[in-house]
Amino acid sequence: MKKKMGLISHSLKMRKARGSRRPHSTQLGVGHELLLLYTFLPVCATSCCPMKRISLIFAVLFSSLGHSLAQTNYYSLVTNHWFQGNHETVLELANHRLAANTNDIAGWITRAEYSLTFEDASSLSNILSRTLEIGSNVTSSAFSSVFAGMTESFVDMLDFVATYHPTPEEQAEDARKAHVSGKPFLYSDYLEALERDGFFANDPPMGKPQTDPPGED
User: Fold this and answer.
1) 8 A C-beta contact, residue 10 and residue 37
2) What would you report as the CA-atom Rg of the chain, rounded to the nearest whole angstrom?
3) Measured on CA atoms in the order 115, 95, 83, 25, is the torsion positive or negative?
4) Where are the domains of the chain?
5) Structure confidence by residue, pLDDT tens digits, 48-98
6) Which of these, 120, 113, 111, 216, lies nearest to 164 by C-alpha position?
7) Structure confidence at residue 158 (pLDDT)
8) How many other C-beta atoms can be found within 10 angstroms of the C-beta atom of residue 62?
9) Are 193 and 21 in contact (CB under 8 A)?
10) Which among 127, 136, 152, 147 is positioned nearest to 191, based on CA atoms?
11) How far apart are alpha carbons 74 and 170 in whole angstroms?
């Protein structure tokens, strides 16, 4: 008997049909910039004057520092943790945002990704609907440019969830597969758009939520 298509499989199929670009997986770390430093130093030692060598060293170090600081925002934390398989950490980050503001669009997008990945159809419909409701009130330019595609994707998934009735064994197997690391964050386009809009610029330091996350009822 042919296995039913799961939520993730359906989402990927729809992305391919719409020609969506590949979701982001992870970003390069500071070590890559330091590797560049060690790569070019021997060359500079023989081909550059002392002032040029010093300038190059500072340029690479400042690039490393800037990249490190850039990765402290929500978008970078979420996509990197997700790719590394730290899914519960990502859920905690989302719950932290929603504990502070129940209308936080980034938190709801992340909750939607988590429920989709772990085949939690019982909560996914309410989360998708809530995310669309809140997203419709976000007017920043970059997010507005992707909201139509997000709406199409979420509405399609809502239709699919309404007819999605896996057996307990199928759902357990799909959820087990979701724990594998190295998978991209499917909804990263929407978080990236929020980042371009400066949505995370004034975020406070991130820690554990002090209150329970809002329910999906």
Assistant:
1) no
2) 21
3) positive
4) 7-23+72-196, 30-70
5) 566 655 555 545 444 443 443 444 589 999 999 999 999 999 999 999 999
6) 120
7) 94
8) 11
9) no
10) 147
11) 33
SS3 labels along the chain: CCCCCCHHHHHHHHHHHHCCCCCCCCCCCHHHHHHHHHHHHHHHHHHCCHHHHHHHHHHHHHHHHHHHHHCCCHHHHHHHHHHCCCHHHHHHHHHHHHHHCCCCHHHHHHHHHHHHHCCCHHHHHHHHHHHHHHHCCCCCHHHHHHHHHHHHHHHHHHHHHHCCCCCHHHHHHHHHHHCCCCCCCCCHHHHHHHHHCCCCCCCCCCCCCCCCCCCCC
Q: Which CATH class is domain 7-23+72-196?
A: mainly alpha
Which whole-number Å values give the CA distances from 168 to 18, 46, 119, 171, 173, in the listed order?
31, 66, 11, 5, 9
Task: Provide CB contacts within 8 A for 70, sequence distance 6+.
Answer: 76
**pLDDT per position as a tens digit, 121-137:** 889 999 999 999 999 99
pTM of the model: 0.68
Classify each residue of 144-166 as buried b or exposed e, where b means 16 or more C-beta atoms within 10 Å of its C-beta: eebbeebeebbebbeebbeebeb
Find where tokens 């996914």 sit: 124
> CA distances (Å), 217 to each of 28, 55, 125, in order?
39, 57, 10
